Amino acid sequence: MRRKDVKNAMPRNRRPELSGILVIDKPMGWSSAKAVAVVRRRAGGPKVGHAGTLDPLATGVLVLALGRATKAIPALMAGEKVYKAEVDLRRVSETDDEEGPVQDFPLPPHFVPPGEGDVRSVIAERFVGVIQQRPPAFSAIKLGGRRAYDLARAGRAPEIAARPVIVHSIDVIEYRFPRLVLTVRCGKGTYIRSLARDIGLALGVGGMLSGLRRTAVGPYTIEAAAAPEALPSPLLPEHLLAAPAGEGNGGPTAPSSGTSASAGDATPAGS
C-alpha cells in the first residue's frame, strides 16, 4: 500500500470486542471530531463514529458508536433531536453564532421591541412543521466537492439553496428583548443557527445564536450523558449501551426518552 493510501485508510479496529453506544456531554470548545478521537484513545483503539455533529460552541448530547455499532449511525442520525437555544435578537454574525464576526443590528430611532405575543405568533406560523431553511454559509455542507465553510473562510461565501427540514415544535421558554430562549424539537439536518437568524429576520431585528445545548438525540438524553473526564479507563463492554436494531454488544438497552417538547406555547392548534 502506498504511503498516501496508508494515511487515508480508516484506523484499524484494535478492540473488536468493544461494540455499543456511548453518550457523552460534549464540552464547549470541542469539535465532534475531537470527542471521537478522545474516546477512541481512552478506549484503546476501537472504531468510533458520531451520530450527528455538534458545533464547537455547542454543548450537550453527542452519541458515539463503537465497533460494530457504527453500522447503526445512519439510523441514529435520522432520529429526533432536542435543543435548548439562546437567541440574541440585537446582534448578527457572519457565522450566525458567536464565532463571528459579530455586529449590532441597526435599529431605527424610537425602536419598540417585538412583544412576546408577536414572537410566539411568528414562530408558530413560519417555523414549525416542514419549512424551507437555508443552511449557514459557514457549514459543513459540500458544494462542488468543497465544504461551505472553506469557501466562506476564503472570502467566497457560497449561496446555499434552501432545503426542506422538519421542526416538530418550538417552545418559548423565556423572552426579554434581546434575549430569547427556546426549546426546539426537530428532525435531521435542521440548523438551529439558521432558525435564530431567520426568526430575527421575520421579526425585523437582529438574530444569531448565542448559546446551544443539545438535550436529546432519539432516546438518548442529557441525563444519560457522561462528561468526557468521567469516562472509565479502560472503557469496557459493560460501560456501553446496546445499539438500535440489534447492532452492538448486547449490553444495556438505550434509556426511554421521556423527553417532551410541547407545541402548546409555539403553535395555535415542529437540526
Structure commentary:
The chain has 271 residues and is of the alpha+beta class. It has helices spanning 3-8, 32-43, 73-77, 116-126, 148-153, 192-203; strands at 20-26, 48-50, 59-66, 81-88, 91-93, 102-104, 129-133, 142-143, 146-147, 163-176, 179-186, 208-217, 220-221. The radius of gyration is 20 Å and the shape is elongated. The protein starts with a helix and ends in a 50-residue tail after the last strand.
Topology (SSEs and partners):
Blueprint: H1 3-8, E1 20-26, H2 32-43, E2 48-50, E3 59-66, H3 73-77, E4 81-88, E5 91-93, E6 102-104, H4 116-126, E7 129-133, E8 142-143, E9 146-147, H5 148-153, E10 163-176, E11 179-186, H6 192-203, E12 208-217, E13 220-221
Parallel strand pairs: 3-12
Antiparallel strand pairs: 1-3, 2-3, 4-11, 4-12, 5-6, 7-10, 8-9, 10-11, 12-13
